[in-house]
């Protein structure tokens, strides 16, 4: 199949969230061969990137197509996490059926960064579905951690689904995509 970026043959789900959280990783975990990546070598390698062994960053967007276990086809777009590429955020979010916001569950500033993203996504005027996928939440503090992210997410979206997910695990990513598509659509709130 030829790739026609922007085709409307399937619901489109956006992967959003901060740099290094795992948007490109999640895309790779579930996409078939029809995918596009726009990662470039990062000039700046932060301490966090070094710890992750991450040397590239998405400068445009990721595009992938995945088949859910029930056979539905979904088109996935991954946004660049760095704010200097935020033109892509406003370009890609308006047409989507749902947004998965990936968040760091293991960082002190994880909630604050998630709030910054929710505020940026709330620029979208039309209703959409939202799921907040929290990565790196250890088993011990999973419930407590998810409650905090759920309270935050609902300030910005009345029907946000909130779950723990590992972007490296195909089953987790599939579940996240299925959950966002099952969630009710609504307009973003001012927060
Ligand atoms: N230890 C650990 N590493 C993870 C986890 N999730 C993702 N990673 C790693 O974190 C890195 C994420 O990198 P990317 O997928 O490029 O991140 P991104 O969100 O696309 O980043 P930008 O495109 O730069 O915004 C990868 O090296 C993953 O293997 C996790 O739950 N635990
Ligand atoms: Mg990326």
Write a structural description:
- With 191 residues, the chain is of the alpha/beta class.
- It has a single domain, classed as P-loop containing nucleotide triphosphate hydrolases (Rossmann fold, 3-Layer(aba) Sandwich).
- It contains six helices and eight strands, in the order βαβαβββαβαβαβα.
- It has helices spanning 23-30, 47-52, 87-92, 110-121, 142-156, 170-182, and strands at residues 12-16, 39-41, 56-58, 62-67, 73-78, 98-104, 129-135, 161-164.
- The strands form two sheets. It has a six-stranded mixed β-sheet, with helices on both faces. Strands 2-3 form a two-stranded antiparallel ribbon.
- β6 (98-104), α4 (110-121) and β7 form a beta-alpha-beta unit.
- The mean pLDDT is 92.
- Bound molecules: guanosine-5'-triphosphate and magnesium ion.
- The site of guanosine-5'-triphosphate (GTP) has 20 residues, from α1 and β3.
What is the count of DSSP helices, taking H or I runs of 4+ residues?
6
β content, as a range? 15-25%
Bound molecules: guanosine-5'-triphosphate, magnesium ion
Question: Low-confidence segments, ≥5 residues, pLDDT <50?
Answer: none
CATH topology value? Rossmann fold
Shape: globular
Walk across the major sheet and give the strand order: 4-5-1-6-7-8
Q: What is the mean pLDDT?
A: 92
Return Rg in Å. 15 Å
Query: How many domain modules?
Result: 1
Q: What's the CATH architecture name?
A: 3-Layer(aba) Sandwich
Tell how many strands the DSSP assignment holds: 8
User: How is the biggest beta sheet arranged?
Assistant: 6 strands, mixed
Instruction: Write down the secondary-structure element order.
Output: EHEHEEEHEHEHEH
């Amino acid at each position: 199949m030829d790739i026609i970026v922007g085709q409307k043959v399937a619901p489109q789900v956006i992967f959003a969230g901060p740099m290094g959280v795992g948007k490109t990783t999640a895309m790779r975990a579930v996409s078939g061969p029809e995918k596009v990546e726009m990662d470039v070598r990062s000039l700046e390698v932060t301490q966090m990137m070094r710890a992750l062994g991450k040397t590239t960053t998405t400068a445009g967007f990721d595009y992938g197509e995945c088949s859910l276990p029930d056979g539905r086809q979904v088109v996935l777009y991954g946004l660049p996490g760095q704010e200097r590429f935020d033109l892509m955020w406003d370009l890609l979010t308006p047409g989507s059926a749902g947004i998965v916001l990936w968040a760091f569950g293991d960082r002190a500033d994880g909630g604050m960064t998630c709030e910054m993203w929710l505020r940026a996504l709330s620029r979208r005027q039309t209703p959409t579905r939202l799921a907040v996928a929290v990565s790196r939440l250890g088993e011990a503090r999973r419930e407590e951690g998810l409650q905090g992210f759920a309270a935050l997410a609902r300030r910005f979206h009345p029907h946000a689904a909130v779950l723990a997910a590992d972007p490296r695990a195909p089953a987790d990513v599939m579940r996240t995509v299925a959950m966002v598509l099952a969630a009710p659509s609504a307009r973003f709130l001012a927060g």
